[in-house]
Amino acid sequence: MPMSPPRPSRRSPRSRKPHRPTRARNSVYRVRTTGMACLELLLYIQLCMSTRSPTAQRIAHECLVLRARWLSRVVSRIYDEALRPHGIKGAQLNLLVAIALTGGVSPGDLAARFQMEKSTLSRNVRRLVANGWVLATNQDDARSLTLVLTPAGARLIEQIVPAWEQAQARTRAELGDDALAGLEELPLGPSHST
Q: Whole-prediction pTM value?
């Protein structure tokens, strides 16, 4: 794949990090949400299919994790762009709503519900607490932390509805109702068979 030349840095020479090459603007590794997202995935799969390895062809054609991660990146980018004016990202909004619905929840229960690494949850919760949207309280001892929605967090949820609706509509326009039909039917949380 062609590599793009290094871009000049706006940071001072002292704060420069080592340059990591980036892919070209039209690279399939950089998913854009311009109505062409589905086409880009198809082109990526076709590119993989043109290799000589039958195993690589099969994985590229059938891999569910490829499609799930691609979908996650596309949808996350749409929501993050819509929610940016409110100072929150889609993943943080999901946590805020879950905290609002429970009336108070432990970080461990929240991590389990969202299948989230503790470090990722901790980073997102710190942001919610720093913005005054969530209060972290110790009920009995230092080990029993409870996350509670603040009045500012409740106001944010109400204020964010138009941006959230915009993201919902844009996601439908980008991916299409057919692609999203099955997604809406998936259970939220692990399914247990008895």
A: 0.66
